[in-house]
């Protein structure tokens, strides 16, 4: 099996501060992605100009502001690769990221989602007082995050799009649905993602939307209840079905 053809998708909303570094980390991959799609989710800063400055294989796709889930869905629709890797505009892939994740698919052809490990770092450009308040963990952790995943395109289609009504937690929701469907996943031991910690992280900016996590949990519970009811109904039908003789 040859190396998987990967499309890299970077969603940005007013992220000019770090976008160039994120794109550089995608272009530094070996094997390189076949394309780097920068989905500009209604930015009003210089994000679009930064993305357009790179030229092929980077492609800037400006859209009206749809939110992070909607922007990721556009990225999937516009991508051409057999596999899709998402990178937040303020994070960085390690140079080995796509190689080690792609190797997992080569080693295990039935694999559908591959994850790597992540390490957090405080952005060097922020105020020292703000940095002291952030205090992220600095050890290597299993990265069940969108930026540490490589996903088979067919699997994205089977599980369905990211929910666009979630301001945060859209990948948690998608992963929950994928696991309920029995998607085959694997965690590789290598470090694949540097997660930048700063005072404008998506989770900090959207702290008022943390109720989305409760909605995600409720949806998961509702799906389980529905599946349980359906399973119970099937068992009743099976018990009541008349026996047939030969």
List keywords for this structure.
9 helices, 24% strand, Spore Coat Polysaccharide Biosynthesis Protein SpsA, Chain A, nine-stranded mixed sheet, 246 residues
Give a structural overview:
The chain is α/β, with parallel strands linked by helices and 246 residues long. It folds into two domains: 6-209, Spore Coat Polysaccharide Biosynthesis Protein SpsA, Chain A; 210-240. The protein contains nine helices and nine strands. The protein has helices at 19-27, 47-54, 68-78, 97-107, 128-134, 153-159, 170-180, 202-205, 211-240; strands at residues 6-12, 35-41, 58-63, 83-88, 92-93, 113-122, 141-143, 149-152, 185-197. Strands 1, 2, 3, 4, 5, 6, 7, 8 and 9 form a nine-stranded mixed β-sheet that branches. β2, α2 and β3 (58-63) form a beta-alpha-beta unit. The longest helix is centred in the last third of the chain and has 30 residues, at 211-240. The chain starts with 5 loop residues before the first strand and ends in a 6-residue tail after the last helix.
């Amino acid at each position: 099996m040859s190396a998987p053809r990967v499309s890299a998708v970077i969603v940005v909303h007013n992220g000019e501060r770090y976008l160039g570094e994120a794109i550089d980390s995608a272009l530094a991959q070996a094997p390189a992605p076949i394309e780097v799609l920068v989905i500009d989710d209604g930015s009003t800063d210089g994000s679009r100009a930064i993305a357009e400055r790179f030229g092929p294989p980077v492609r800037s796709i400006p859209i009206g502001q749809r939110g992070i889930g909607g922007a990721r869905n556009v990225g999937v629709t516009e991508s051409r690769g057999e596999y899709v890797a998402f990178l937040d505009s303020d994070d960085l892939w390690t140079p080995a990221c796509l190689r080690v994740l792609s190797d997992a698919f080569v080693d295990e052809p039935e694999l559908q989602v591959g994850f790597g490990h992540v390490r957090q770092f405080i952005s060097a450009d922020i105020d020292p007082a703000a940095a002291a308040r952030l205090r992220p963990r600095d050890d290597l952790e299993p990265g069940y995050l969108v930026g540490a995943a490589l996903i088979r395109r067919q699997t994205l289609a089977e599980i369905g799009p990211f929910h666009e009504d979630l301001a945060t937690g859209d990948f948690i929701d998608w992963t929950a649905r994928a696991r309920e469907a029995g998607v085959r996943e694997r965690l590789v031991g290598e470090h694949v993602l540097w997660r930048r910690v700063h005072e404008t992280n998506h989770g900090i900016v959207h702290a008022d939307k943390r109720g989305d996590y409760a909605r995600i949990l409720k949806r998961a519970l509702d799906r389980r209840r529905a599946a349980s009811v359906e399973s119970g109904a099937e068992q009743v039908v099976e018990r009541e079905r008349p026996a047939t003789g030969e």
